[in-house]
Structures are given as C-alpha cells and as structure tokens.
Write a structure and sequence with these properties.
Helix content is 11%, strand content 33%. It is mainly beta and 276 residues long.
Length: 276
C-alpha cells in the first residue's frame, strides 16, 4: 500500500512550476513530424498519442492521463465489459501498432445519474495493466492547482461521424472557438453551469462517436510547448454544426485526483463500477 500511495503522489507533484503542477510529467509531448469530427482534417496518432478508442455499447473516445487511467464521458461507460484501444490511427483492428487493453474498473461521478442534473458527464476507466509510454502512447497534460485561465481556441479529436453519418476511418482533428456558456444554455435548453465549456465553429464540430474525447489546447509550461486537456466531448447538435457542450476538466480536477488516489493501481479480479 505504501508503494501505491507513493506512485500516485509522484504523479500529482511532478514538475512543479509555481503553485501549479502536472498530473504526469511525461504528458503533452508529441512527434512534431506526425502529420468524424464533422468538417475536420486527417490527423496522426503521433500528433495525439493520448487518444484512446473506448470500446463499449456505443463508439466513444477518451484520453490517456497516466499509465493506468483513461478519462472519458460518463455516458460512454457501460455496465458491460469494456476495452480501450491505443496507438490507433484508424478504426480497423489491423492498424499497425494498435493494441487493446481490458478495463478492470469504471468510475462515474456520483451526481451524473441524478435526475435533472447537468454538467457531471465525466468518468474514468482503469486499465487492467499499466502502460509503457512510446511515441504512439503518451498522456495528455492535466494541470493541477492552477486557477482556470481563458482559452480562446481548442482542438477536438476523434473517430466520430463525418458527413452523411459515416464514421471516419482515420483520426480527425478540428479547431473550435470558445463561446459564452449562455449561448449553449439557450440553444440546448439546459441550465447554465460552470462545469461545462461551450465551443463552436462554422466549419467543424464533434459528432456521433466523438463523445468522451478531449478538447485540448497547446500551452507553454516550463518553457516547453505541451498539450493540455480542458474539456471532454459531452453533447451537441444532432446536425454536428455550430455550438457544442464539453465537460470542463479544470472544474473536476480534484475529483479526478481523488478518484485515482482512492482506487490507485492495485489489480482487481473483475470489472467493477463505482460512483465517486
């Protein structure tokens, strides 16, 4: 138990800069040579090595945040057995370097199921084993103990639907702009909640199959450019255009850290579902 606690704490406090620190010091780095999101463009897993396919009842995405945990949307988590696929550029099982790992623990925010509650579409998947980082498998950055700063431009990635409801067989990325929350609240008739991000584009949008994937932005940390996750694809227009709602990761940082610390890295015998 002492070893587990030491590992978790090390992940939290590595590479401190001022009052802020990274959840995992190896995060957010990518191959600069790496070459449906509706209206997006082809990308490469080396450019987004934290991208994860969540294999469940419905297609979803996720992001690797440390060697054992994947961050995704709560609505992507099933009570049935689940897997995640990593190092995959495309959907096919024969994609080179791609591999799958069983999920041995699922963690959903305890307020997600409350009737009428919005803004809690967040969950964690613990893989059955820890991963070794490579150019194709690397965590995205989560910034700990940092005041939320406005980000104007985001990148969203996934294998969701493109035009005409057809899923992309190649990883896609698109650029979105930050929008006022009241606009999403008005459009989707939901309550105005600070635990969400509203983002938009006239040319591209997250779409079916992109749920759970990361909304990210490149920022400088300790004189080095890294990619940080700010949101999780939650829901939006059925036409996959205009405004979309994303779970605000910064708002749930303490929840993420507490869940990882609580359930740690010890193996379990069977897949279990928890609410935290």
């Amino acid at each position: 138990m002492k070893i587990v606690i030491w590992v978790v704490v090390a992940l939290f406090i590595a590479t401190e800069k001022g009052s802020a620190s990274l959840h995992d010091n190896a995060c957010g780095k990518r191959d600069p040579m790496g070459p449906k999101i509706a209206g997006g463009q082809n990308s490469d897993i080396r450019t987004h090595p934290w991208m994860v396919m969540v294999i469940s009842n419905e297609p979803c995405g996720g992001s690797l945040i440390n060697p054992r945990y994947v961050l995704t949307a709560a609505h992507c988590i099933s009570r049935n057995s689940m897997k995640v696929r990593l190092a995959a550029d495309g959907l096919g099982p024969s994609v080179s370097k791609a591999f799958e790992v069983e999920v041995d623990m699922k963690i959903i925010h305890d307020k997600y199921y409350n009737a009428g509650n919005t803004g809690y579409d967040i969950g964690l998947l613990r893989m059955a084993r820890s991963l070794q980082y490579t150019d194709y498998v690397r965590p995205i950055c989560l910034l700990v103990d940092e005041q939320e700063k406005p980000v104007q431009t985001f990148t969203v990635t996934g294998w969701g639907e493109k035009q005409f409801g057809i899923r992309s067989h190649v990883l896609q990325e698109a650029t979105l702009n930050n929008a006022d929350l009241w606009r999403c609240s008005f459009k989707f008739r939901n309550s105005y909640v600070l635990s969400e991000i509203c983002a938009e584009s006239t040319k591209s949008d997250a779409c079916g199959g992109d749920s759970g994937g990361p909304l990210s932005a490149q920022q400088k940390y300790d004189e080095e450019e890294r990619v940080f996750q700010y949101g999780i694809v939650s829901h939006g227009s059925h036409h996959c255009t205009g405004l979309g709602i994303y779970t605000n990761v910064t708002h749930f940082m303490n929840w993420i850290l507490s869940a990882v610390e609580l359930y740690g890295f010890d193996d379990v015998q069977e897949c279990t579902l928890y609410h935290v």
